[in-house]
Amino acid sequence: MKTVKGLHEKMYTFDNANTSFKKAAANKRFHEEVLAFSMSKEDELFRACEELENLTYKQGEYTVFKVWEPKERLIMALPFYDRVVQHMIVNAIGPVFEQRFYTHSYACREGKGMHAASNQLYKWMYELMTAQGLRLYGYKGDISKYFASIPHEELKTENRRYIGDRKALYLMDNIIDKNGILPDGVGIPVGNLTSQLFANVYGNRLDKFVKHTLHIKYYIRYMDDFIILSPDLAQLKEWVKRIEEFLEEEMKLHLNPKSTILYAGNGIDFCGYIHHPEYRKVRKASVRRLKNDVKHLEAGELDREAFERKYKSRLGHMGHADTYHVTKAIEYELLFWEWEQRESGLLVPA
């Protein structure tokens, strides 16, 4: 496979820096660090261009924190300046990788995403189970601690299968090596733009093995979660064995013990939805979180503005599944609560 050169000079143009600033600042223009950067924006962008051109860029220190939704994760965030620089790098190298990625890999890619992944799985299940009448089995695979387990040397080797620009690789290697509080030589921080790209690059090794070596037709991946469908249970078990061996021996990764083979007729949990051949449901946890938000609003523990942001987001997610009765019940509860508030004089009409 021919590697691509001439990428380094694309990174440090002022146009790329300005575009990167806009991307990094999207929906965050009034954040304190973005406002501070904007006060000397031109100087900062010229500095970024100069540091990338001269290979003197040194990545800043991470701020480490946890998030608990949809599950507990450790996030390591860089200063805003570094996020702009990462956009400058990814703008140059991203297209090289993108054109060689597997079609049905859906995480952190333009035009893809969770809903597109869900739609594709739903389509396959309908075709196989409803249209063809097959008894279908699925394997729900989960790579254990994926971001924190990616080995640096193997990732760098994979990058070199695509890119032959020594200066671009030097910058990429430095970002990979400076991985915050993770152990030396392993792991990339969740939250980095480059981490999202590199995780897809490394995951593409699995995609190529599944498609070109095992020749599995119905395979879909969303970062560290993947689904395989087959009406042949024995064949599915053999594929799983081969995949587990490949991950451990070739990629130095491991499957989570919760990975399992299941009967597709009971539903397949993937990308936030429970998929059946003719309908989709949201996870019970999603409904529970929405109901908890309503309870916290009613108890005065969540202000109206914060509630509205969460409410719209959760309804947007639930709107892609068969949740009419659930969402209507919650809507009526909110209307009744608002009526009670107005009657008691606690809520002023808009």
> Number of helix segments?
14
Strand arrangement in the largest pleated sheet: 4-5-3-6
- The average pLDDT is 91
End-to-end CA span: 62 Å
What is the molecular shape? flat
Structural class: alpha+beta
Structure, described:
By secondary structure, this protein is of the alpha+beta class. 54% of the residues lie in helices and 11% in strands. It has 14 helices and 9 strands. Strand 7 (268-270) and strand 8 (273-275) form a beta hairpin. Helix 2 (14-25) crosses helix 5 (80-98) and helix 8 packs across helix 10 (193-213). The longest helix has 21 residues, at 193-213. The mean pLDDT is 91.
Give the structure's gist in a few sentences:
The protein is built from 14 helices and nine strands.
Key features?
14 helices; three-stranded antiparallel beta sheet; four-stranded antiparallel beta sheet; single chain; 350 residues
Write the layout of secondary structure elements.
Blueprint lengths: L7 H4 L2 H12 L6 H8 L1 H14 L8 E5 L5 E5 L2 H19 L15 H18 L5 E6 L3 H4 L2 H8 L6 H12 L15 H21 L5 E4 L2 E6 L2 H18 L9 E4 L4 E3 L2 E3 L4 E3 L1 H15 L5 H15 L5 H20 L7
Antiparallel strand pairs: 1-2, 3-5, 3-6, 4-5, 7-8, 8-9
Helix pairs in contact: 2-4, 2-5, 5-10, 8-10, 12-13, 12-14
Organism: Petralouisia muris
Protein name: RNA-dependent DNA polymerase
